[in-house]
Every structure is written in structure tokens, then in C-alpha cells.
Design a protein that fits this description.
- The chain has 611 residues and is of the alpha+beta class.
- The chain folds into four domains: 179 residues, Sandwich (Immunoglobulin-like), CATH 2.60.40.3650; 109 residues, Neutral Protease, domain 2 (Orthogonal Bundle), CATH 1.10.390; 195 residues, Neutral Protease, domain 2, CATH 1.10.390.10; 79 residues, PDZ domain (Pdz3 Domain), CATH 2.30.42.10.
- The protein is 31% helix and 27% strand.
- It contains 18 helices and 29 strands.
- The strands form seven sheets. An eight-stranded mixed β-sheet has the order 5-4-8-2-1-12-15-14. Strands 17-18-19-21-20 form a five-stranded mixed β-sheet. The chain has a four-stranded antiparallel β-sheet with strand order 6-7-3-11, with no helix packed on it.
- Helix 5 crosses helix 8 and helix 8 packs antiparallel against helix 9.
- The longest helix is centred in the middle third of the chain and has 19 residues.
- The chain is globular and about 85 Å long.
- The protein binds zinc ion.
């Protein structure tokens, strides 16, 4: 935050505040998808009447809510032109990626490139834009439109012309639609940015779930994923979320899914899978994978539950930094532990509270988070408040993913502590709910007051929890927290294992065929480069199971039994055999159910998991 502000201040061009005489003034943005060419679209922006700025700065966001990264969307806007009300062209300069017009413009025109195509831009795909003229458009509107400084609260009308047969899926309010164009309305720039759209040939499914009207829209280039199958995963996920929440917080919701095909991964190396939350929709960028198998379903389930649960935080409970988001000089809140940490924890809890995940799997997932966290904290651990406030600085940006590991662990221990301090009367969720009633989307809390507010609602000693484990760098007492719900935790233990001496082989990444491209010359089996794996212990090796088989029989064998591998070489099929050696391995962060839990632990277990 500090570093950003300094950078921006140096580049500020003084512009007079833009004032509009009538409150009827509004933006009219025309995005011409129908005449898209070379992965670029033309945008015309009719500006509010009565602007008095001169020069006028048309702000294109540096960052948007929910992303916690600095993306400078103005970079993708080119060939900017400005005109006054008589149609005369006005001089335009670019400053800090914004468009600065000398004079008072009536409209702007420019071309937009998409963020997905540009190499090395590091824009997280779910927050960026995709322009593939014939097949698919992902419209995160902050990548297509901005606002004249001081007028982000004005109304927006957005007209989108579309190629024949395309449908635009979005939660944005549609006020008119024809075969060739759609017209939408947003009450402000913030509302526009909060409602992405995806245009492509339609593959959508709508259904009602627990009182919410849900639409699932899917784009999958190889038609591996279909809206029907994605919806069949979303439905039980939302049912689980509804059971946790009691009542659904929204009347309608749109899930926008873009599944990237294998061919895209080969073209663009820096794809970033994930999703971004909005008030009544979420956008997903996930791999097409092998279709709706167990891993694919699990991925959709956990990300969809996470994004949907963001409705609680930050969408309905947030501080000023988010409520009045500064698109030019974003200021970061100190509460990423709440926005991302608690949300990730709640998605796990919702699934474990329902039948989608067992309590044991919930606890194992927490342990997985602890293990991954260690990788990030090899150098030093950070305070979650520090990470949150400085997340836009490169050093902290690199650490950002740790919030999804450290955050849910802290949230879990916080939940245990709240339940213990209140004898089960209050929970983390109920406390957040109480705060949501006091505050809300339009009533932000003071960023620096939240820890005190929490403690006032629960117990004075909760302040110490925040001081040590959220503001400070101490890890919460995970062993005690797990014992409280009847699990035994071991920080580190030694287990029997089996191991081949030299088996680090690598398979071809460019081909589905399991061909060995690298191996240790003296490997136990005698693998050679160019060997194609045919069978491992009698099981046929396929593109789908190759890594599972390697892992189960060669990388981490579970017994000392000899393993037989049949490989194909120029001379035909050859059988290679080797036996692993017994060894010992250190495992970190293991848990097991306590065989004789205390009555309190049994009570808390039931409270946590509802079973
Ligand atoms: Zn999130």
C-alpha cells in the first residue's frame, strides 16, 4: 500500500475534478464484439453530459476488488481517441495507463486487447479478459471500460453487439436483448465491475436451489465439460452451503465457467487457474481435464463453494478499503485472514458438515494446508496482517497463496476458541453473521477496529488470539485445537517406508504416450530414454493413470514386493524388474481420531460436523 501510493503520487497529473450538473448523467459504453478483429474489440464510451474537467482523466483500474494484485488494465487499451460535443478530435495522452484528454470530451473511442493472450502480463485469468473473435469473450468490464475521475458512482448503460448465435451469460441487469445486441444497466462503475459476462455459443443450465435461482454457463473448447454435468456438481455443493448458512443470502446467482483445453496450455504457458467472486456471480478458469471425474468434481466443488461463500466476506462484510475501492491507488485492508482465510475454512466446513467430505478428510485437508504453508515459510513466517496490507508489494505478492493455507488453519483455531470461550453458544460463523447485521455491504467497518469488535462480541481474551496469531507471527496451537474436537496431532513422526534407489524418471510432457525422456543412468529397473511404459505390475499404463501408477509402484511403493514393468523398445517389449528397499521416512503434521475422546470433545465434534 505505501509503496504503491508513492509510485502513483510521482506520476499524478493534476486534473480538475469532474462535476456533472444533472444526476441523470450516465455513461453509455458500446462494446462491439460482432466486428471483432485480430482478437481486438472496438469500444465507444459516451461520457456523462455536463463534465467540467479540463484536462479530463479517464481512469482504467490498477487493481479491482478481490484480486489483491496490481494489474494495470490500461495497458490493454490502445488507439485511444477523444472527441468534443461538436465532433472535433481532442488531444490525448496516456499517463500511468490512464487516458488523459486535453479539453472536455463528449466521447472516447479505443481498441481493447485481451489480457489472456499477452504473454508475461501476470494477470490472473479469472480477473482478466478473453477476446477470441469466433469462439469466446470473457468480459471483466474493468478491462474494457473506466470512468472519468470523480464519477465512478454514475450509472452505466452497456450495449454489446454480438456475433450471430452467441449468448451473453451474466448477472448484470439486462434491459434489452435482440439477435444482434444486448443492453445492460449498472448503477455504478463498481456494480459494472462486479458483474462479468461471458459470450459464446450457449451451454447453460438453470435451476432452483434452496431458494436461489441459479444459472450455470459453460465454455469448454473440446466440449469435455458440459453445463449439465457441472450443474450436477454445483447443486449438492449449494445444498451443503445452504445447510451451513441456514438461509441463502441471494435470490439469483450465475456461475460462469471457462474450461481451458490442453491446446491452450501448450500455447500460453502462464495460465493461472482459479476463480473470482462477485456479489451475485463468480467466474471460473479451470482446466478441461478429463471431464467430470472425481478430481474434476472435487475441484469444481471446492472452488464453487469458496466463491459462493465470499458472499459473507468480503461481499457483505468489509472495511472501507473495499467498500470505497480506489481503482487508481488501491489501499489494502488488513483482513485477508477474514476474506480469504475464513472463506476457505467455511467451504471446507460446509462440505464436512454435509456429506460431501468426511470429518477425517476435513482434518487431513487442514494438515495438507500446514504442510504447504511450510514451503512458503521456509525463509520466515509472516503476520497475516502484514501480508494483507503489503500484498501489492512484489515480495509479499509472491507469498500471497499462503493465505489459502495459513488462513484456514487460523480460522479453524479461531472457531474452536470462540466455541470454547462461549461454551458453544457462539461460533466463528455466528459472530460474522452478527457483524454482518451491524455492518453490511453499504456500511463498512473501520479496518483497525475489527479485532476489538470481534472480542467485544465474544470474550475479552479473544483479543489475545488476534494479537498473537493474526497480527503476530506465532502459529495457532493446532494440537490443542484438534484435541478440542477429538483428534490427536503429531508434529513429526517416523514411519516405515520403501524406496528404490535411483528411480527419478521423467515422462514426455508434449505427448500423451508415457515415453521416458529422462532417467538416472544407473536406475534400479534399467529404464532407457525412449522406453514406452506398457504395463506396471500387470496394469495397462494409459495417459490418464500414468502418474498414479508411477506414484503407487515406483515413487512411493507400499511394500518390499518386486515390481515388474513392461516397456516397449525398438527390439520389442521387455520386462524390467526391481525390488524396493525398506527405509524410514519422516512425516509432518499427522492426525488420528482420539480413541477415547472427552465428552467435551465429542460435543464439539458434533457441533462442528453435525454428526
Ligand atoms: Zn477467495
Amino acid at each position: 500500500m505505501h509503496c504503491l501510493r508513492l509510485l502513483a503520487v510521482a506520476a499524478v497529473l493534476i486534473t480538475a475534478p469532474a462535476l456533472a450538473s444533472e444526476n441523470a448523467s450516465s455513461y453509455r459504453i458500446t462494446i462491439d464484439l460482432a466486428r471483432c478483429q485480430n482478437d481486438r474489440v472496438h469500444v465507444r464510451v459516451d461520457l456523462p453530459r455536463g463534465l467540467t474537467c479540463n484536462p479530463c482523466r479517464y481512469v482504467l483500474p490498477r487493481s479491482v476488488p478481490g484480486t489483491y494484485s496490481l494489474d494495470r488494465y490500461g495497458r490493454f487499451v490502445v488507439d485511444a481517441r477523444a472527441y468534443d460535443s461538436s465532433g472535433a478530435e481532442l488531444p490525448v495522452t496516456r499517463d500511468d495507463d490512464d487516458i488523459v484528454v486535453t479539453g472536455t470530451p463528449a466521447w472516447l473511442e479505443y481498441q481493447v486487447n485481451d489480457t489472456w493472450d499477452e504473454p508475461n502480463t501476470d494477470v490472473f485469468n479469472p480477473t482478466g479478459s478473453n477476446i477470441e473473435c469466433d469462439t469466446n469473450f470473457v468480459l471483466n468490464f474493468h478491462a474494457f471500460a473506466g470512468y472519468i475521475e470523480g464519477t465512478k458512482h454514475y450509472r452505466y448503460t452497456v450495449v454489446i453487439t454480438k456475433p450471430h448465435g452467441f449468448y451473453g451469460a451474466t448477472s448484470l441487469q439486462r434491459i434489452a436483448a435482440s439477435d444482434s445486441a444486448d443492453t445492460f444497466s449498472a448503477r455504478s462503475y463498481m456494480e459494472l465491475v462486479d458483474n462479468p459476462a461471458m459470450y459464446c455459443r450457449p451451454d447453460t443450465v438453470s435451476f432452483d436451489q434452496s431458494g436461489t435461482r441459479v444459472m450455470v454457463a459453460v465454455y469448454s473448447p473440446n466440449r469435455v465439460m458440459r453445463a449439465e454435468s457441472v450443474a450436477s456438481v454445483i447443486k449438492p455443493t449449494l445444498a451443503a452451503v445452504a445447510r451451513l448458512l441456514g438461509k441463502m443470502p441471494v435470490e439469483r446467482y450465475t456461475f460462469l465457467f471457462y474450461f481451458a483445453g490442453r491446446q491452450q496450455r501448450n500455447i500460453v504457458g502462464n495460465l493461472s487457474f482459479g476463480a473470482l467472486e462477485h456479489s451475485t456471480s463468480s467466474f471460473y478458469f479451470l482446466p478441461e481435464g478429463r471431464g467430470a471425474d472425481r478430481t474434476g468434481e472435487e475441484m469444481i466443488q471446492s472452488t464453487a463453494a469458496h466463491e459462493f461463500l465470499h458472499i459473507l466476506v468480503p461481499l457483505h462484510l468489509h472495511s472501507n478499503e473495499i467498500a470505497d475501492f480506489d481503482f487508481r491507488n488501491p489501499r489494502m485492508s488488513r483482513h485477508l485472514w477474514l476474506y480469504e482465510g475464513c472463506t476457505e475454512y467455511f467451504q471446507m466446513l460446509a462440505r464436512a458438515h454435509d456429506t460431501l467430505m468426511t470429518p477425517d478428510a476435513f482434518v487431513r485437508e487442514l494438515m495438507g494446508n500446514l504442510r504447504m504453508m511450510r514451503v512458503f515459510y521456509r525463509q520466515r513466517s509472516v503476520s497475516l496482517v502484514e501480508l494483507s496490507q503489503r500484498v501489492l508489494e512484489p515480495e509479499y505478492q509472491k507469498m500471497y497463496p499462503v493465505i489459502y493455507m495459513h488462513g484456514p488453519v487460523v480460522a479453524f483455531c479461531l472457531d474452536v476458541t470462540i466455541r470454547q470461550l462461549t461454551n458453544g453458544q457462539k461460533t466463528l460463523l455466528s459472530t460474522i453473521r452478527t457483524l454482518m447485521e451491524k455492518y453490511g455491504p453499504e456500511r463498512p467497518f473501520r479496518d483497525e477496529a475489527l479485532f476489538d469488535e470481534f472480542s467485544d462480541l465474544v470474550h475479552p481474551s479473544l483479543r489475545d488470539f488476534f494479537r498473537r496469531y493474526v497480527e503476530g507471527t506465532e502459529l495457532p496451537p493446532i494440537a490443542e485445537c484438534l484435541a478440542a474436537i477429538g483428534y490427536r496431532y503429531t508434529d513429526s513422526s517416523t514411519v516405515e517406508a520403501y524406496q528404490f534407489r535411483n528411480t527419478s524418471i521423467m515422462l514426455s510432457r508434449t505427448s500423451d504416450t508415457p515415453v521416458v525422456v529422462m532417467r538416472q543412468p544407473d536406475n534400479d529397473f534399467g529404464f532407457r530414454n525412449g522406453d514406452t511404459l506398457v504395463r506396471i505390475n500387470g496394469i495397462l499404463v494409459t495417459p490418464e493413470n500414468k502418474y498414479d501408477l508411477l506414484s503407487a509402484y515406483i515413487w512411493a511403493p507400499r511394500s518390499s514386493d518386486t515390481v515388474a514393468v513392461i516397456v516397449r523398445r525398438a527390439e520389442g517389449e521387455v520386462e524390467l524388474r526391481a525390488a524396493p528397499q525398506p527405509t524410514q521416512r519422516t512425516v509432518r503434521h499427522t492426525v488420528s481420531p482420539d480413541p477415547a475422546p472427552t465428552p467435551q470433545a465429542r460435543f464439539l465434534y458434533r457441533e462442528f460436523f453435525g454428526k
